[in-house]
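Appendix C: a fully annotated inverse folding record. The material below is reproduced so that readers can follow the format used throughout the book. The structure is listed first as tokens, followed by the designed sequence.
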């Protein structure tokens, strides 16, 4: 029963991340989507291992050719400057889940810190990958300020708000979800 339930929950969050890719807020250069919200929730509710697994499955499906990414899909997507954010989603989800899992009933502050650390990892991976692809693959000279403007500053306010909302919802829902999962055992 546990294995089946875990597979269903992973699949559900894989689908939610894919749906989040198509809920876009118009921001120049780097698309602002709700993927971050769903990857963070995967870490919070599924934990480090299962949360990261659900996001890795999403990335694998996109690389196999399903058009689930914000700008399509296929193996060639690794040459898109924004692919680093997808790598960051996997690592950030794992870290978020690891921090939240440490306590039986994590505080809102702990959840918020976990979300912000996960966000930081996503931005580090996304910004570094963006710079590498722009510089070495696309041969485009990009200044440091432009890089941070496009990769961090334009979307950070929205993502920080999502972190606050996620921490608030997480604090309320974690006990309910854990209780329901215990009943289902």
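Designed amino acids, in order:
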């Amino acid at each position: 029963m546990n294995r089946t339930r875990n597979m269903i929950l992973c699949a559900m969050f894989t689908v939610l991340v894919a749906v989040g890719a198509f809920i876009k807020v118009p921001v120049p250069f780097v698309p602002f989507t709700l993927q971050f919200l769903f990857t963070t929730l995967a870490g919070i509710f599924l934990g480090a291992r299962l949360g990261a697994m659900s996001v890795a499955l999403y990335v694998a499906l996109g690389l196999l050719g399903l058009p689930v990414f914000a700008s399509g899909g296929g193996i060639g997507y690794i040459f898109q400057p924004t692919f680093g954010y997808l790598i960051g989603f996997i690592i950030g989800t794992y870290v978020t889940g690891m921090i939240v899992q440490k306590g039986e009933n994590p505080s809102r502050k702990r959840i918020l810190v976990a979300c912000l650390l996960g966000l930081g990892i996503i931005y580090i991976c996304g910004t570094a990958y963006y710079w590498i692809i722009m510089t070495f693959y696309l041969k485009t000279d990009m200044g440091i300020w432009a890089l941070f403007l496009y990769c961090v500053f334009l979307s950070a306010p929205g993502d920080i708000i999502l972190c606050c909302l996620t921490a608030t919802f997480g604090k309320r829902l974690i006990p309910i979800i854990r209780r329901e999962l215990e009943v289902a055992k």
